[in-house]
Backbone:
């Protein structure tokens, strides 16, 4: 029966059915054929959503949308330009730095890609850069959003896999910095090869001027991460604090309007409604997987292929990467994490180490065709064909794969900070 379930699921995904339909219909068919009351579907959906941890998702999503609406991205961009804009290929460095700062506020790759991309692609055209280069680095840098805390997909992963969200957040800091460093190196190499122009000299006056304008914005990640670090509030409470602080910034900068705030609240509510529907239905799928002992079957299959922990991680990440080319990160987490966690536990792999790697691999899928949410977002902002942007992104994508493999063999880069601060 499980093979019928999986076959129908894969068929619906390949047919581009709405993800809620692709996840829900096979489960209903399974219940009907198994002569189990369809009422169990309602119970499992409600039980999955009855989790206070998921309250952080709409709040961080709303905070990211408000950041874009209140035009704070411009202040971050100007500050980043003052810091690294004078380097050859400076615009690429600015994009990475801007994305890294914005990531610590939005938690969403799609919000990062659109928010930063709106500014950077226009700036690239004005400064003589290839628009494909600007779009590619914007797309690649958007992968930092779900890695550097706060991260929406880490919240969903933590709730699904029963892993501490605080530890996942802190564990993502060093990998996020490693990914950012890799992209900065790649930008420098490409810029030197293509002889991109220098953007002027460094100016302390400009640095302090832009820092003054962006100072309150730059305090946002300090407030969120610092509060979690020192135990002032939980990740769920931090999401609400982030929204309140962003609203205060809008009032201070006088960019907050009732119409704009209403629009973003409605848009965020619509997005969260769709997301929570998928989350709830995935709970039913997880119940079906458990009943059919799919985790045990998958664990036996993987253990038959490889036995070393690092090899098991690489096999699991390979599966996630392939899925990421066809599905968004959320359904991947909700479908695959419950199946993989018994394997991780049996191989004595640190759940935080694997969790951060899991989320990072899901993120790489967001920038790959045929179904890449961030890729579509950047393509629409840049008004360029998706294929041209992806080919321009390929050097950065391969660099990030190298960084991911590095983190597989050096788990301390992920686990050191959580062990230091949260033990």
Residues:
């Amino acid at each position: 029966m499980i093979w019928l379930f999986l076959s129908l699921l894969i068929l619906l995904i390949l047919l581009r059915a709405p993800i809620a339909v692709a996840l829900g219909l096979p489960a209903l068919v399974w219940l009907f054929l198994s002569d189990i009351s369809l009422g169990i579907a309602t119970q499992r959906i409600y039980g999955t959503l009855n989790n206070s941890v998921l309250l952080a998702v709409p709040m961080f999503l709303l905070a990211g949308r408000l950041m874009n609406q209140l035009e704070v991205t411009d202040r971050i961009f100007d500050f980043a330009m003052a810091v690294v804009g004078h380097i050859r290929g400076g615009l690429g460095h600015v994009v990475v730095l801007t994305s890294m700062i914005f990531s610590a506020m939005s938690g969403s790759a799609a919000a990062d890609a659109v928010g930063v991309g709106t500014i950077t692609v226009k700036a690239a055209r004005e400064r003589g850069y290839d628009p494909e280069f600007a779009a590619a680095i914007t797309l690649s840098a958007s992968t930092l959003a779900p890695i550097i805390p706060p991260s929406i997909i880490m919240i969903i992963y933590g709730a699904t896999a029963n892993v501490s969200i605080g530890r996942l957040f802190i564990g993502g800091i060093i990998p996020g910095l490693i990914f950012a460093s890799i992209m900065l190196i790649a930008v420098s190499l490409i810029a030197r090869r293509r002889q991109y122009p220098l953007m002027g000299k460094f100016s302390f006056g400009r640095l302090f001027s832009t820092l003054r304008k962006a100072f309150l914005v730059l305090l946002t990640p300090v407030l969120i991460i610092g509060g979690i670090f020192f135990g002032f509030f939980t990740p769920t409470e931090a999401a609400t604090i982030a929204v309140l602080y962003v609203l205060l910034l809008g009032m201070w900068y006088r960019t907050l309007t009732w119409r704009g705030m209403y629009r973003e609240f409605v848009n965020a509510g619509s997005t969260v409604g769709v997301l929570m529907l998928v989350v709830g239905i995935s709970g039913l799928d997880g119940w079906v997987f458990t009943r059919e002992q799919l985790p045990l079957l998958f664990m036996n299959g993987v253990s038959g292929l490889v036995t070393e922990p690092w090899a098991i991680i690489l096999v699991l990440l390979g599966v996630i990467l392939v899925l990421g080319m066809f599905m968004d990160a959320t359904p991947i987490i909700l479908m695959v994490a419950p199946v993989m966690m018994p394997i991780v536990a049996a191989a004595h792999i640190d759940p935080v180490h694997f969790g951060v790697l899991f989320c990072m691999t899901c993120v790489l899928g967001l920038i790959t065709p045929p179904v890449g949410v961030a890729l579509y977002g950047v393509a629409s902002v840049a008004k360029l064909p998706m294929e041209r942007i992806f080919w321009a992104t390929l050097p950065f994508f391969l660099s990030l794969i190298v960084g991911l493999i590095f983190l597989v063999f050096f788990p301390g880069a992920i686990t050191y900070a959580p062990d230091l601060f949260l033990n």
In short: The chain has a mean pLDDT of 78. The radius of gyration is 21 Å.
